[in-house]
Amino acid sequence: MNERPEAMSEDDVTRAVVEAVQAALPGSDISVVPDAGGFVVRVVSEHFDSLPEADRHARFQEQVPPRVASQVHTWELLTESEAPWYGDLTTTTTPPPAWSTALDRVEDGEVTSAQITFASDLDQDLNSAPVVTFYSLKGGVGRSTALAAVARRLATEHGLRVLCIDMDLEAPGLDTLFGIPEETQSDIGVVTALLAYEFGENPSVLDHVVPIDDSGRLFCMPAGRIDGTYAARLRSLEPEIWYRERVNALHRLIDDARDSTLRPDVVLIDSRTGVSPVAAPLLFDVSDMAVVCFHPHSQARNGTELLTGALLSSTTRRQALIPLTPEPRFVVSPMPPGQSAPRLADRAKSWIDKWLQPFNEARHSAPALTAEEITHVVPYNAEVSFSDTVTSDSVRLAPYARIADWILQIVPEPALQRSLQSQTSESKATALAQLSFSTGTAEELDSEQFLQDYVVTRQVSETADPSTPLILGRKGTGKTALFRWLAAGKLPEWSPVAVTTPSFRERPDWSFGPENYDAIDQHLATSGQDWGTFWQVLIALAVHRTEGATGDTAAPHPAMQNLEPGDFAATRSILDVLRDPMGALRCVDWLRKVDAVGKKQLLLLFDGLDTAFGNTPIQRRRRSQAIAGLLAKQADLAPKFSRIRLKIFVRQDIWSGLRFENKSHFYGLSRRLQWEDQREYFKVVLKRAVHAAAFRDILRTADKSLVETDVAFWTPAQVDMAWSSLVGERMRGERTAFTSNWVWNRLADGNGDHSPRSLLQLFAAALEWEREEEKRSAYDRSVLRPRSLALSLERVSEPALSALLDEEFQELRAVADALKEYGRTPIGEDVLRDALDETPEDLIALAREAGLITLNETDDEARSFRVPDLYRWALGVTRRGPM
Q1: DSSP helix/strand/coil, 394
Q2: Distance CA 869, CA 370 (A)
Q3: Which domain, by its residues, includes 699?
Q4: Taking the chain, what is the end-to-end CA distance rounded to the nearest angstrom?
Q5: Is residue 47 a part of any domain in this protein?
Q6: What is the rounded CA–CA span in Å between residue 4 and residue 877?
Q7: Which 8-state DSSP code applies to residue 662?
Q8: According to the model, what pLDDT value does residue 42 have?
Q9: What is the pTM of this model?
Q10: Is residue 231 assigned to a domain?
Q11: 807 in the same domain as 713
Q12: Which of 426, 514, 579, 644 is the most exposed place for a label (fewest CB within 10 A)?
């Protein structure tokens, strides 16, 4: 067997070639350029004037030593008149994108030290339609189907103009997937167009494009009709010379498509599988994003790892302020149904995380690459697999939505948004200076403006109605803000009486804390009285102290007359009333008189019950008994009064655990404060934004009605327009394409509940970041750039977790510590149980109820739990579970 000649250095090859050629053809102009797989040698000599090409090689090649000749893969032997047609070979400063070059960089361990920047990292849009290549090392993984489905979704769901190019030239089929009739194809297509460019012609790219439907948004450039001439035309293509010609045929094809009247928003390319000559320039040169499809079989592991390294070591041809790297995305397909699916998905993601790890240092200030962010699993669907075409059926397209979202992140937005067309750097700077987002602290809750902005947005008519006695909600969903609003007397014709209040505000003397309730509980335990009796006495005291004496009765009971200030005197007076066998009855009788002869309608408010009793197990049991007694007493008193109403604010999880007679009485008489509509949620922050005059001016440019209508009454379209003006429409480099979805998903707890407080905190942090960033880099598409949200989420996570553990569920600290120790999500139920010393079942159930964790939805028998993004940063948890 012949041994492979030893490789020579570039200098040695150049010197040997020049010496050999000059000896054979004195006076020749010689160029030696390194290229993929070896060297290209161009010899320009008058000796070739009368010689055909075959004879030119014979004149001197036999004089070139075999060791040197083995390093040269292309000889260009030209006359002086022919040379201008071939361009200047010496201007080639880098080898053309080829598999050998790209893979050699990876195998040699040449991990790039330059910064890796993707198109999705940029604040500004790309200057032309992005190119996205769908690629797979092996066939049968649904690559072409994924492209067709994504193309249809981008066109139908998002209204983009999409051009699909079939570059799987050896086995074309994209036209079939789109249902393009064969008779319409003739000799049009990619192969014919590329050949025309190679021969120096200027074909019209539109002659090779076929509309897929009547929408005017979806087009396909097929490879060409498979007939007797197709194979011959395909053999005539020479991808290896594209990068040595004056005109690069591949570049011209894409550029002409972009510049044509078609004006696509995005170009999707279906690449040939394997290590084909055409796939290399598609992946390593022209693509802004490469969607790599593979099945997590061991056969695909090594090859896909090398491909990932080659992509991340490449630089695209796109002209930008900084070099851009092709952005890898992974589609694991097809994922079989059944119990093996989660295991295979985890296997694929663990591989990808390993492949990405060496490159994350080159990301610098940009977010690190993680498999969870850039991987999508497509489940097996027999109907799709055996279908001849990919239609616009929304159900069948749904599994490909995330891939479409990836692509949307790098698609340029249409011109400037109407709301910002006249915006200048001066107007934005003014808006940044004027904007302010209250974050829901105790002081802000007391401010008139905050209550107006925050509560009125929440459709008060549903929850503030006096005929609705029970308001349920989690911490931060607006329960206490609504209480503040009602306590400030904002409900017309109703006078508020704050019976119990949250602990962070100065409480009235009769709004008790743990020690007071402990004293009451001891009396009830020995007297045989119940908590309902206590509440009717406390209500009478609160009404008396708030509204004053009524009629001939100075106080509900003598023990309540002329009380000294302080909660001690209030507690003692209530105990004195309870010790009187007729005391509680006297209080109810007094309340009836107030209801009958009073001129006011009284709204009795109860809030702060979740923390007022303390957090020990005994205190929590006491709290349940007391709240159950209060609700039972409300059901008993309500029919007796016409001018007095009770409104009780209870945390959702506490209500769920209560057991008392006639609990069904509250069916239909309760409302849950839960933000179920994105746009209503966003009105909270938009209410604050419109206080800035400069921002109102921006909105006025977009739509005059935005500043003439109260935010609470904005239509969905108006909310969307104002939202985009404030923070832009699309995210960059994130799992979700749109800023609205990103904020909605990232600020949700494990139960899908949303806190306006977290929303305001996010925008307050983003505003602070934007003010500094604008000094370094101007941005004119929105007041806050979308990236400001992603970089501010961490500052929201810590206070959100603190509020959950310090103000609501102190008993969940053990669960939080276990999650921090494990450091990954999802976490297996068995792992979490082992980490909890006491009552793991109860703590896990409470953690799920509180939204700290949520069940990971898989078909695996072994359950696992996911930590929502809202708490993930504060817990220091990454998005990868056990491997």
Answers
A1: helix
A2: 15
A3: 418-441+676-791
A4: 45
A5: yes
A6: 52
A7: T
A8: 86
A9: 0.77
A10: yes
A11: no
A12: 426
Residues 165-219 pLDDT 10s: 999 999 999 999 999 887 655 678 999 999 999 988 999 999 999 999 878 899 9
Task: Take residue 763 and report the two structure tokens written for it.
Answer: 């925008």
Report how far residue 365's alpha carbon sits from residue 370's, in angstroms, rounded to the nearest whole number. 15
Residue carrying the six token digits 């491909």: 307
**Residue where a domain stops, chosen among 673, 690, 721:** 673
- For residue 521, the SS3 value is helix
- CA–CA distance from 527 to each of 327, 520, 521, 861 (Å)? 73, 11, 10, 52
Q: Beta strands of 321-409 (E only): which ranges?
A: 327-335, 375-379
Residue 295 lies in a domain: yes
- What the block records as the tokens of 685 is 């922050």
Pick the range with the lowest mean pLDDT from 625-634, 708-717, 730-739: 730-739
| Least confident residue range of 46-55, 120-129, 755-764 | 46-55
Q: What is the mean pLDDT of the chain?
A: 86
Could you give the angle at the alpha carbon of 382 between the alpha carbons of 377 and 386, nearest 5°?
115
Question: Cα–Cα distance between 231 and 108 in angstroms, integer?
Answer: 37
DSSP structure class, residue 803: I
- Counted domains in the chain: 5
**The residue to which tokens 């019976």 are assigned:** 499
872, 853 contact by CB (below 8 A): no
Boundary-marking domain end, from 773, 791, 809: 791
Most confident of 86-90, 501-505, 653-657: 653-657
Cα–Cα distance between 281 and 863 in angstroms, integer?
45
Burial 284-318 (b: 16+ CB within 10 A, else e): bbbbbbbbbbbbbeeebbeebebbbbbbbbbbbbb
Written as one string, the DSSP assignment of 478-519 is THHHHHHHHHTT-STT-EEEEEE--TTSPPPTTS--HHHHHH
H-helix or E-strand containing 870?
helix 869-875
pLDDT value at position 185? 58
From the CB of residue 569, how many other CB atoms can be counted at a distance below 10 Å? Answer: 15
Whole-number percent of the chain with pLDDT over 90: 48
Specify whether the backbone of 141 is left (phi greater than 0), alpha (psi in -120 to 50) or beta.
alpha
Token pair recorded at residue 741: 């979805």
- Is 571 in the same domain as 658? yes
Residues 558 and 613 placed together within one structural domain of the fold? yes
Q: Would you say 660 and 628 are in contact if contact means Cβ atoms under 8 Å apart?
A: yes
Where does residue 194 rank: exposed (0-12), middle (13-18), buried (19+ CB within 10 A)? buried
Any idea what the CATH number is for the domain that residue 63 is in? 3.30.300.90
Sequence letter at residue 160? L
Q: By three-state DSSP, how is residue 440 classified?
A: coil
**Residue pair 397/152 in contact by the 8 Å Cβ criterion:** yes
212 contact partners, CB below 8 Å, separation of at least 6:
164, 178, 179, 180, 218, 219, 220
**Does the residue 714 lie in any domain?**
yes
The answer to whether 32 and 17 are in contact (CB under 8 A) is: yes
CA 821 to chain centre: 26
Residues comprising the chain, all counted: 883
User: Rounded to an integer, what distance in angstroms lies between the CA atom of residue 757 and that of residue 437?
Assistant: 10
What region, left, alpha or beta, does residue 489 occupy, with left being phi > 0 and alpha being psi -120 to 50 degrees? left
